[in-house]
Amino acid sequence: MSRMRNALLAGAALLAMPAAAQDFVITNATVVVGDGSAPVEGGTVVVRGGKVIAAGAGVAVPAGAQVIDGIGKWVTPGIVVALTDLGLVDVDGVSETNDFTKGSGPFSAALDVAPAINPSAQPIAVSRAGGVTRAAVVPAAGGSIFAGQGAIIDLGADPSAITAARVFQYVELGENGAQLAGGSRLTSHALLRNALREARDFSRMSEPLRGGTRAPVDSGDDIPIDPRLASNNGERDDDVLLTRFDVAALVPVVNGRQPLYIRAERAADIRAALALKREFPALRLVLVGATEGWLAASEIAAAGVPVIASGLVDLPGSFEQLAATQSNIGRMSAAGVKVAIGNLRDNDQPRYAPQYAGNLVALGRVPGATGLSWGQAFAAISSIPAEILGMGGRFGSLKAGRSGDVVIWSGDPLELSSAPEAVWIDGIAQPLDNHQTRLRDRYRTAGEGDLPKAYDW
Amino acid sequence: MIMKYGLRGAAALACALGLTACATTGETRSATSGKGSSGKASPAANFDKDPYPSSYKPYAGAPTALVGATIYDGAGGRIDNGTVLLSGGKVEAVGGPDLSIPEGYTRIDASGRFVTPGIIDIHSHLGDYPSPSVAAHSDGNEATDPTTPNVWAEHSVWPQDPGFSRALANGGITALQVLPGSANLMGGRSVTLKNVASRTVQGMKFPGAPYGFKMACGENPKRVYGGKNRIPSTRMGNFAVNRATWIKAQEYRRKREAGKLETRDLGMETLVGVLDGDILVHNHCYRADEMALVLDMAREFGYKVTAFHHAVESYKIADLLKASGTCSAIWADWWGFKMESYDGIPENAALLQNGGACVVIHSDDANQIQRLNQEAAKAQADGRRMGIDIPDATVIRWLTLNPATAMGIADQTGSLAPGKMADVVLWNGNPLSVYARPDKVWVDGALLYDASDPKRRPVSDFELGQPGMGDTK
Questions:
Q1: Chain B residues with CB inside 8 Å of A91's CB?
Q2: What is the pLDDT of residues A49-83, one digit of tens each?
Q3: Hey, which residues 311-370 in chain A have their CB within 8 Å of chain B?
Q4: What is the pTM of this model?
Q5: At what angle do helices B235-257 and B288-301 cross, to 10 degrees?
Q6: Where does B16-77 show beta strands of DSSP type E?
């Protein structure tokens, strides 16, 4: 324990300087690889150069390594939360601080979340203290069915949050999409199809393909900016609906280079979303929400479309969620669908992900319900969201070569009594203090002391 | 407005004249104090205080013995390998392994399982903001005037809200207080319900429960009415409107007691009920500094704040809250969703408990009402990590006896004391673990949820014939 504290202090000291990855080994811990396998007792995790070198039982401790005794502790990959508002919001209800629910203005699909991310926002610090190390961020759709392009961030206490920008496009179908489209599902489907057709036409007709000479603009990202986004050239018909930037942003979607995340809740909306692939075969779909997904589980599985579902929706909160049940994720998983627990924002805080996963384990003991095994449940908040985001090779598990995103927990991470005691991102020890912990320390006793509370900091 | 209240006034008049049978619960004070110099009771003073009486009758239950369980009795006690006897709708006895089980009891082997009193949510909007949450169902805020003490939440409750059944099956909720929303400074009367399916709200009303009165400070009232360009648009406006209204209520009470009132005023009747101590104040309030001001306002006008709700900053004034005997009804760890919640911390409950103040864990949410036990467990763990160790049995009290006390029903429920209502949850594990769920739930000794019996779970009218009807939820 004291060795761990020392390690943390060393990490904290490093943070004052330009952050550097630590090389360290955690021994004697219950190790959770995060790939769906069961926890391994007495395991070892080796991190070097910011990467996981090895994790599990029977792993040799490299000579000279800094060793942290993990006896009685659990070690896991950091929690990955797919689809949240982290970095876009300081206080949801304070409009000036909220870049999540604002999305009107002239553009839609072209909106790019990356430049708006604020790594210093308190919700990031609080989520980090909850063991969340990576997140996929996308704004709410505002003036259009398209919310724009989401990014993947890390929750490290450093200025560079973006792991990957413009990773996916997000579109609302269902009730919300209908409202955004001007009133009905008919309109939202027409708008979506028109947008994809305009993108297909634009892709065929405009300059880069006609000339065939221009390479994609290299921005250093995984998905390069389409050259059309950096150009005002290229003729278009007069009767187009989308702006040049919006249609250009949809070119990688219709060409299958950028996944399209579709929010759909009711079974009929899910089927209508899956049917899009018949018209636009290159689409790479991800379903978001899918409250009634269990009613179409075999079709979703057959289409090979993964799902980012909310953990515990069991109320008919709307007419598109009539069949809601907490067994949704378990039933879809059992049918062969790749399902992540996600969509955590506002009062559904990212740090609740382990609690939700634990609840799905609890369902295994409720007659008639379908839950997840412990290993599956943890994977649903680590490796599975990472895989859906296309990042399974980079983070989300403790397999060799993954980022050194590591959390030491006081106990079973899905249990309510447990909490992170140490967090590393890319092998860099992270501070776990924040506005909340400072308030806690100041108000350990309520009364004023010799000086007002304001002097206690 | 006049039409709406005219009918009720006529009924009250008929009641006062002895033309109809009238419920007399709680009537004594006004019936005796409302006489003027003439000695005649005025209509404004002598009226039916319970015009929508509870029609709830306990359902049938068999004498039952839960044997070998870990028992949290709700009052802070714990018995390992304990036995609970339920009979005649009441808790008959609670004891250890030596407690003898009379003949004729259905014996349930509860070894490895846990027994608690029924969980109680002091802050719910089930029924007045029901599922599905369509605009036609938005019945929680009469946001047309900053003070609406005249409205009663029970007149908005839709008994077919599917949320009641989820709260029962997943949360073990057996009683709840449904409150008006927080758009108004004075939102109206709450209603306390037993969590039983019923065709009518009267069939759910908790017999003998006092009314609560919903108040709200801070951002919501000033935002709603400031947005309509009327008072209050500031926190000082909030207090000015509240104080002016309490002054009117005091005048109303004086005139009524002097027999000088002929006309009833529904809002004033509620406010005088508060001043008389018959109606309990539940005040939505986030910030510590505002709670301190409200406590002074309550002293100024001679009423008590029973509980501050959503009180995310209570930990800053645990000493003041202990001194005033005011409970904090709180979430475990909600924070930061609005400016006045920015200083919320997960250690709030533990710091309050440690400071000797009353803690109640509430939901205000159709989802979290299904997991109040988990919220309490998180709050307990956050306390433990800062060195405040709170026993499991005390934590269970946050969900049982403490809310029952703050709702004025602790003489009937909230703990497993002999003679109290047999509102009981049998959990399949420790309810402070994420892996536990209710196995069975009894309300007044009637088994109303059984995880192993698909028919022993309520399905609301709304869900009939819909996809997922009767599914595990």
A1: 336-339, 341-342
A2: 999 999 999 999 999 899 999 999 999 999 999 99
A3: 312-319, 321-327, 346-347, 349, 355, 358-359, 361-363, 365-369
A4: 0.92
A5: 20
A6: 64-72
